[in-house]
Amino acid sequence: MAKAIITAAITGAVNTPTMSPYLPITPKQIIDEILAVHSAGGTVCHVHVRDPKTGHPVTDLDMFREIASTVKKRCDIILCLTTGGGAGMTSEERVKPIIALKPELGSLNAGSLNYGFFPIKEKFKDWKFEWEPAFLGMTEDFIFTNTFKGLRQYSEFFVKSDTKPELEVYDAGMINNIAYLISRGYLQKPVYIQFVMGVLGGITPSPQNLLFMIDYAKRLIGDFQFSVCATGRSQFEMCTQSLLLGGHVRVGLEDNLFLEKGVLAKSNAEQVTKIIRIARELGIEPATPADARKILGLKGLDKVGY
Hints:
- By secondary structure, this protein is of the alpha/beta class.
- The protein is built from ten helices and 16 strands.
- The protein has helices spanning 27-40, 61-74, 91-101, 131-137, 148-161, 173-183, 207-220, 235-244, 268-281, 289-296, and strands at 2-4, 6-9, 44-47, 49-50, 57-58, 78-81, 105-109, 113-114, 143-144, 164-169, 191-197, 224-230, 248-251, 258-260, 263-264, 284-286.
- The strands form five sheets. It has an eight-stranded parallel beta barrel, surrounded by seven helices. A two-stranded parallel sheet has the order 1-16.
- Helix 1 runs parallel beside helix 9.
């Protein structure tokens, strides 16, 4: 039977506390969410951290270490630590979790783009924290920077840490960037690509666009595994298409705060349960962490730095 890696992006760095009371903020909340995802059948958790008092995205190694080491003692789920960080962070800040903790899997954004989530600001009038509207608004004039020099340096850090990069692809040109990095020896095939759809500044979510991206990657790269995530209402539609095409999926409160129209998800585990039900209707089982380590060629939990 076919198996699919089910990733949950636990909290991210875009959605803010005002948008949902269920968005995990503190290390304990994030740990509890990860353990619930594992119990629900999830395979991987993508991890950002936040200021536990305000919910502002941060890169705090002590919090990353606390979360990772606590989860490691409790279960065998795979942790994918972010190098995306949050808007305005430096490259040095963003890559710190990979260098220090040497996880099995880490996100590596495959190119620069206008990354705008400022329109969300129009949906709310009363804010829980003062930083939220300014944080959202600044992205009208924000470039998510991932230059070729940065991609080379990040790739070198991943090699030194023996961490598998999960290559975040927001638009078609980033596939060409990956092919370039492979040609120069900075990345090794088979690569693992996450097609990220629906970000303002990136490719829109549609069946036609996903088919194009997969076909383009096959022609340009050849040997790869892929997963799909999509923002907002398109999350489950695009994840279902990924399953139909033999791919893996990412759900979670980083990408979408809802379980269905008008119904906030109370946890990441609720979304994981829903996509696993859909997968099983299609004859696809969720991959266990052990399955995923074989599929992606990961080094194993005994070789991480936490």
